[in-house]
Each structure stands twice: as structure tokens, then as C-alpha cells.
Amino acid sequence: MPLTHEFFLIRKEIMVDRQFYLSPPHEGIVVIHDDIITYIWDSLMWIPTHNPGKRNFPADYGLNYHGVTIVQDGGAALLRDICLSWCTLFSLAPQTFQLKGAYTHSSGERIEEGGYEKIRCDRTELTKLLKDLANLADRALTDGYCILHIGI
């Protein structure tokens, strides 16, 4: 099973139930592979968010990699703009391309003998995913909606 991040468009009113994120009723979903999220991670840390895993959903920045995150209002606008910016950049790539992933090495192997993972991408597929997430974020700007992110 691949590692993925799920982004749900939900109504803010369902957040009164502390367990709402276990099976969220949603009006849209975008699922993005962890390799892509990790690649654009630094820019996702600029987004104002809330952490429903903590008491009173405190304000914070960035997505919870291993947990849940709420993105609303200004955070949704920034998420939309970040996704569209990456979409513009990736639209300049060849139809199929590779991104540099994490540096890895085998157990018992010297670190110098390792190498970087290769993330194989299809330009059309990747830009569509990012546009879909940007559209979800844009819809979250409407009163009564927000984005629920569920990390790996």
C-alpha cells in the first residue's frame, strides 16, 4: 500500500465531533503520493493551519506529516497559490521526468555507497493532481468549508 496524503473538503460544522477525522463526510477529495508531498514539503510549511489532535485546535503552520491538519481561510488561499505555483513549474518539465528523492542506503552498507531515490513523474498526471488540490483549496474559501489533511 503506497504512502499517501489525503485532502478532504469538509464542512466546518462537523468539527464539533472530536473524532470527525476518522470517517469524514466530505464533498471532495484529492490523494497525493508521499514522494510528491515530501518534495514540496518546505513550501507546505508556510501554510497557516490548525491541529485537531491538540486541545482547542491551536493555530500552527504546516501540515502534520503523520497526523491530521485543518486548513481554512488564509491557509486555504496560500495552499491554492502554492499548488498552482508548483503546477506552473512542473508544466515546464518533459512529459515524463524524474525528481530526486530521499538519500538511502542498505543496512550494513556504508553511507557513501547509497544513492538518491528517483521519483518518476508524468507531467500531465502531476499537474492535474496539483490543480485538483488548488481547486479544493479554492472551494474551502467559501464560508462553512475547510480542508482536512490526513498524513501518512
Number of strands: 8
Number of helices: 4
Overall geometry comes to: globular
Biggest sheet details: 4 strands, antiparallel
Helix-strand topology string: EEHHEEEHEEHE
- N-end to C-end Cα span: 11 Å
As a percent range, the share of strand residues is 25-35%
Describe the structure.
There is one protein chain. The chain is of the alpha+beta class and 152 residues long. The chain has one domain (4-150). It has four helices and eight strands, in the order ββααβββαββαβ. It has helices spanning 34-39, 41-44, 74-90, 123-140; strands at 4-11, 29-33, 48-50, 59-61, 68-71, 96-104, 115-122, 145-150. Strands 2-1-8-5 form a four-stranded antiparallel sheet. The chain has a two-stranded antiparallel ribbon with strand order 3-4. A hairpin with an 8-residue loop joins β3 (48-50) and β4 (59-61). α3 runs antiparallel to α4. The longest helix is centred in the C-terminal third of the chain and has 18 residues, at 123-140. It is globular, with a radius of gyration of 17 Å. It starts with a strand and ends with a strand. The mean pLDDT is 93.
Short description:
This protein has 152 residues and is α+β, with helices and mostly antiparallel strands. The chain has one domain (4-150). Helices cover 30% and strands 30% of the residues.
List strands and helices in order, with pairings:
Layout: E1 4-11, E2 29-33, H1 34-39, H2 41-44, E3 48-50, E4 59-61, E5 68-71, H3 74-90, E6 96-104, E7 115-122, H4 123-140, E8 145-150
Antiparallel strand pairs: 1-2, 1-8, 3-4, 5-8, 6-7
Organism: Brevibacillus thermoruber
Protein name: Coproporphyrinogen III oxidase
